[in-house]
């Protein structure tokens, strides 16, 4: 064999080499491309989440000193370790009157909590229970004696409302969120409308009153505001109003938790951006905390959220002549025990008549 022949048999095959004679690596190149896309996606997602969090933290309002002094607060029972209780307050004005993003006082004011709900998130994060407390419930306001529970806001601000609720049930409130009803207009528009199954046809009061037919109706903008505010159109007043508010909140949650919303970043941003200016939260309930809670509740859907109203003994009259809601102490004791044991879902199963 000549030297030329030998050289031809030992030189590497360059038919698949690049211009510099190096072998291509299609698999490695594919992985590099995919890796780059993942990094880009992560950066985009991170930027989106940062923008979302920034929108909430900058536009929402912080309630300064939302909680009573530590010495007056109940401790968390071992059985309820990991559960979260959030007090939701709704009114025609937030718990504070400062500009969005400001730190505001939580002290006494002329405002009252027109709507009061205690949201219980169990430690296992498998479901959620939301309990409405009638605003005219006659109970003890610490340091002031007996009065309607919604009077606590005017007497001592958010800290006294928290202390009153904690004293009523013997459980700790972890977070507070106050929502101005005006935010419902932008919220429903951002979601493209919210459908509720209206149980009772009614005409809302006022010169600009609106008729709401019985059955499935879609609420948007001003109509949503009229729906959750109305009480004069009903013979039982606040009872039906509370039920309508529960219907609305549950429908909103159901709409938010749909794939159509969750997979649409622009829609999620619109919801947060339009609602946050009408929300005031305690200083620990920032976007990071809410995001962490949302992730832990990722398997929960609207069917796993139970709304009910704290049982009571009906209407009555206080010693000074006020029309009030009379407490059912036996029922409150049962609810308190369930909250303290993180077994509120079991309580509702055992007492189906309580559910909405």
Structural overview:
The chain is of the alpha/beta class. The protein has a domain at 45-180 and 257-354: Nucleotidyltransferase, domain 5, CATH 3.30.420. It is 39% helix and 21% strand. It contains eleven helices and 16 strands. Strand 10 and strand 11 form a beta hairpin. The protein is globular and about 80 Å long. The relative contact order is 0.15.
Overview features:
globular; 39% helix; eight-stranded mixed β-sheet; two-stranded antiparallel sheet; Nucleotidyltransferase, domain 5
State the shape.
Answer: globular
Ranges with pLDDT <50 over ≥5 residues? 1-12, 40-45, 94-105
Structural class based on helices, strands and sheet pairing:
alpha/beta
**Which architecture of the domain at 45-180 and 257-354 would the CATH scheme give at its second level?**
2-Layer Sandwich
What is the first-to-last residue Cα distance?
Answer: 96 Å
Major sheet: arrangement of strands = 3-1-13-8-2-4-5-14
Reported by name, the CATH topology of the domain at 45-180 and 257-354 is Nucleotidyltransferase, domain 5
Task: List how many beta strands DSSP finds.
Answer: 16
Number of helices: 11
Strand content: 15-25%
Rg computed from alpha carbons, rounded to a whole number of angstroms: 28 Å
* N to C succession of SSEs: HHEEEEEEEHEHEEEEHHHHEHEEEHH
The first-level CATH class name of the domain at 45-180 and 257-354: Alpha Beta
Helix proportion range: 25-40%
Largest sheet: 8 strands, mixed
- Could you report the average pLDDT, rounded to the nearest whole number? 83
